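Same chain as my last thread, 193 residues:
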Amino acid sequence: MSRPNIHAAYVDKPATTLYRLDGDSLEPVGLVITSGTTSGGALTYDSLADVFSGALLSLNVDHNIPVITGTHDHLIEWENVEYDVGSWVETTVSGLQFQVPEGVDYVKLRFNALWDSSAGSDRGLSILKNGLAHPGMGAVHADGASDLVQTAHSAPLPVTAGDRFEARVEFHGGQDKDIIADSQTWFSIERAG
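reply #2:
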């Protein structure tokens, strides 16, 4: 296997993150150097391993959102950890949620949900940071389709260790709704810097 050179690279510590020079700033490449040498301003590597840090939650049973007067907000009580690379998942009284570990500066989140087949009413998903909506948080709303699948994405968000993220569903009027425990219902977080 040939070993390509990575030019204008800087390594912050031995065997950690590899950065590339992008204009006047250093951008993380997201790779770990497991061994390597520098020669003439270029880094030659023996092997690189992809770095991933994040988690994925899912449901074991459908979640019912009962009709009450007005808007019906409901935090999803996640039950199953599909994976947790980097210690993101925290168990709370109301199920599983994400908590940012030490050393993370930015994250991206996605929330995907399959609603039940009962027609009618506006339905939506949103992602909360420390219990509140923030700029860059994902949200989506749609009106009245049955078997509706929705996805909310966040922008890369600045974080500090201990920040918590939750997935919220809401609907307006109509009858009780269910979020279906299915491969199409999940909540994910990943390190973005």
